[in-house]
Design brief:
The protein has 171 residues and is α+β, with helices and mostly antiparallel strands. 26% of the residues lie in helices and 29% in strands. Strands 1, 2, 3, 4, 5, 6, 7 and 8 form an eight-stranded mixed beta sheet that branches. Strand 3 and strand 4 form a beta hairpin. The chain is globular and about 55 Å long.
Length: 171
């Protein structure tokens, strides 16, 4: 048995505490949201977007389909959120995941959670499809999320910051 006191003297505990001390969100109002499971985060992302859009006077409803998350003024929206990630060179970026152009929606909404603010962007489905369904010179699907890069899985990710994507329009 490993007691809580024993755990405090482990290398794992020291590594975890070091990581937490360096977390750019440690003093952020978004920390509690960041620490939720992916499924719970997704539900809160959808609710937060709905609340924001309603505050802007839009008519927002839940979708009747699993292919999209909300309907805003008659347009079907797929909502993707991300907190900042650091790559191997410590360059910060967002990673929006589970982008499925084959599903039934009109627009993708991108929530970009910085430690001090939330920025909201969107783009129409065809624009996003053209950005993620990309093959390199060797035929690899560079944004493919599942099953390697050789086969189009239909599920993609997008890495970067909003300014990397001029087609992302602020909401």
């Amino acid at each position: 048995m490993l007691t809580a006191e024993d755990y405090l003297s482990t290398k794992v505990c020291k590594q975890v505490n070091k990581q937490l001390a360096n977390d750019r969100y440690k003093d952020s109002v978004f920390l509690s949201l960041k620490n939720l499971s992916s499924k719970k985060k997704g539900a809160y992302f959808e609710s937060m977007y709905q609340e924001y859009m309603e505050s802007k006077g839009c008519v927002v409803g839940k979708s009747g389909s699993t292919d999209n998350d909300r309907v805003v003024d008659g347009r079907k929206k797929e909502i993707k959120g991300s907190f900042l990630w650091a790559d191997n060179n410590n360059k910060l970026h967002f990673r929006w995941q589970q982008i499925r152009p084959g599903q039934d929606y009109d627009d993708v909404v991108f929530l970009a959670f910085f430690p001090d603010r939330l920025e909201i962007y969107e783009a129409n489905k065809e624009t996003v499809r053209n950005a993620v369904e990309v093959q390199d010179e060797r035929g690899n699907w560079i944004h493919n999320q599942h099953g390697g890069k050789k086969v189009n899985s239909g599920t993609f990710f997008l890495d970067g910051v909003p300014s990397d994507f001029p087609w992302m329009k602020p909401v």
